[in-house]
């Protein structure tokens, strides 16, 4: 071992040690994570935090204003709005996380194939362009109308329009990475294509995919609320933030709390997820981080 070897090996752990504090110092990431964690914990602990059965009908307690008995009031059927909001977080977060996971997974596979296989690129991307040309809300309403309301149907309906966006993002990264010398060297020594994509191309897509997943999750929660509000989403017997607001439309003038509290939950959750995505983008994008550092 020569004296130069420890010097060459030292920078790697130093870079890793500096990366974590930079993420934790970003206020957007901290605020977004805190709000999302609170909502997630409330959803998981709904049986403990709820004050009653969210689907129990109590007509004699209908349209009660918020009080010490019903913290967020009751709806037109006497159901406790607080319990329904807590349980509704489960459905909304489930749809958001599921749509983000499925769309990122499928979109990444399509983007890798399209970006690295020139023959299939034109065919795949024209199909993706065709899907993106259809308004996502109209596509979701059509699918829910044809297949029937249900959590699975809503997840599929919201996922399909998001896949082309992920595929285009991954393709753009792959088109740049595939020309790098280390990728060409791996191909030159006979490395199988799936291994090249796994080892050398896919890691370069992780950072933008994490950011994109946060935006997709927030958009999915908002889209589910819109679909349920329009009557084309989750069945009414399953409490979700969109369903609660939809059922409160007829009583809005005399009981605005039915729409107010789930609406605030949707706004706060989507805003927190978007703030988290902005913070991750600022931290994980090396070019943006370098530009901010130069300005300081």
Count of separate DSSP helical elements? 14
Output mean pLDDT: 81
Which structural class fits the helix and strand makeup?
mainly alpha
Tell me the span between the first and last alpha carbons: 41 Å
Helix fraction, binned, reads over 70%
Number of domains: 1
Q: Topology as H/E string?
A: HHHHHHHHHHHHHH
- CATH fold group: MetI-like fold
CA-atom Rg in angstroms: 24 Å
CATH architecture, by name, is Orthogonal Bundle
Q: Please, what is the CATH homologous superfamily?
A: MetI-like
In total, how many beta strands?
Answer: 0
Helix and strand topology:
Elements: H1 4-9, H2 11-25, H3 27-44, H4 46-49, H5 81-116, H6 118-132, H7 136-147, H8 151-177, H9 181-188, H10 193-201, H11 206-229, H12 241-247, H13 257-284, H14 286-295
Helix pairs in contact: 3-5, 3-13, 5-6, 5-8, 5-11, 5-13, 6-8, 7-8, 8-11, 9-10, 11-12, 11-13, 12-13
Question: In words, what does this structure look like?
Answer:
- Helix 11 runs parallel beside helix 12.
- 74% of the residues lie in helices and 0% in strands.
- It starts with a helix and ends with a helix.
- The longest helix is centred in the first third of the chain and has 36 residues, at 81-116.
- It has a single domain (31-295), classed as MetI-like fold (Orthogonal Bundle).
- The chain contains 14 helices and no strands.
- With 296 residues, the protein is an all-alpha fold.
- The chain is elongated and about 75 Å long.
């Amino acid at each position: 071992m020569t004296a130069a070897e420890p010097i060459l090996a030292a920078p790697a752990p130093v870079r890793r040690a500096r990366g974590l504090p930079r993420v934790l110092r970003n206020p957007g990431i901290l605020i977004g994570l805190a709000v999302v964690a609170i909502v997630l914990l409330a959803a998981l602990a709904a049986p403990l935090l709820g004050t009653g059965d969210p689907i129990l009908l109590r007509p004699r307690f209908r349209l009660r204003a918020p009080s010490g008995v019903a913290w967020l009031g009751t709806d037109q059927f006497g159901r406790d709005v607080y319990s329904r909001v807590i349980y509704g977080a489960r459905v909304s977060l489930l749809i958001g996380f599921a749509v983000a996971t499925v769309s990122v997974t499928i979109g990444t596979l399509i983007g890798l194939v399209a970006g690295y296989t020139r023959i299939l690129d034109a065919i795949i991307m024209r199909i993706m362009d065709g899907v993106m040309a259809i308004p996502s809300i109209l596509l979701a309403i059509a699918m829910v109308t044809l297949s029937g309301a249900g959590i699975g149907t809503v997840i599929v309906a919201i996922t399909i329009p998001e896949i082309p966006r992920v595929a285009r993002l991954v393709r753009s990264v792959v088109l740049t990475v595939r020309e790098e010398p280390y990728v060409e060297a791996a191909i030159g020594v006979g490395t199988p294509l799936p291994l090249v994509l796994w080892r050398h191309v896919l890691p370069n897509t992780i950072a933008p995919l994490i950011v994109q997943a946060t935006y997709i999750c927030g958009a999915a929660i908002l889209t589910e609320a819109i679909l349920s509000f329009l009557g084309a989403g989750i069945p009414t017997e399953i409490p979700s933030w969109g369903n609660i607001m939809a059922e409160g439309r007829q009583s809005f003038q005399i009981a605005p709390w039915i729409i107010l509290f789930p609406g605030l939950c949707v706004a706060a959750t989507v805003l927190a997820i978007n703030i988290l995505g902005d913070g991750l983008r600022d931290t994980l994008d090396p070019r943006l981080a370098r530009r901010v550092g130069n300005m300081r």
